Amino acid sequence: MRRCIAIIAIVLVAGCTDRSIPTATRAGGPVAQDRTGVIQGKPADTRPMLPANAMVVDTTPVLARIEAMVTLSLAAVPIPPDAFSQAGDAVHPDVACAPVVWNGSRCWVTYTPYLGSNAIVENPSFLMARTETQWATPPGVTNPVVPSPAGGGYNSDPDQAFDPGTNRLVTFYREVSGGFNKIYVMSTGNGRWWTVPQLAFKEPNHNAVSPAVVIGADRMARMWYVETGAGCGTSQS
Fold it and tell me: Is the entire prediction scored with pTM above 0.85?
């Protein structure tokens, strides 16, 4: 009698075991699965399936894609011929915008003509914005607004910033002469007449290239420029 009870207990315990425990199979034999088709001993894969096009790769060259994006977001801006070079070739553009419309326009650009890479005509000039892509010479202005240096050399690298404290547009530019990079500053209150340029500072050639100025809320003008005399670097004044 005791033997029968023991056998029945063993059968009951065996019947309560977890059926998800993997069943040993012979090498090369089929893997045991439960009624749902899930391999015994492994949890079901609940990860979402990737869409059919998830692995599609754009084979367009990166440079071509960049050019396409630039073409869509930018438009050519024609420059009217200046009185000196009589050409629309231009370099070193810098745009400054006032908080509100100022003397007929909100945004103004300074640049230097550069006909045939001729540094003699590389003199700061000035335009007003009619639209985002239409620029015009302001009434009463004859470009360039800064002549070539009287003692030889050339001008370049104009930059400007609007000073809301004085309601004036402040322009800096570089004169290269006498072995120095000379940074001059001038300003205008109406976009037609400028103050006489004043020398802000100078550095030996070519240690003050491409000046960029920002006038903060404290009305402190901060300028960054590039030192190229002994290799490229940046400085702040």
Answer: no
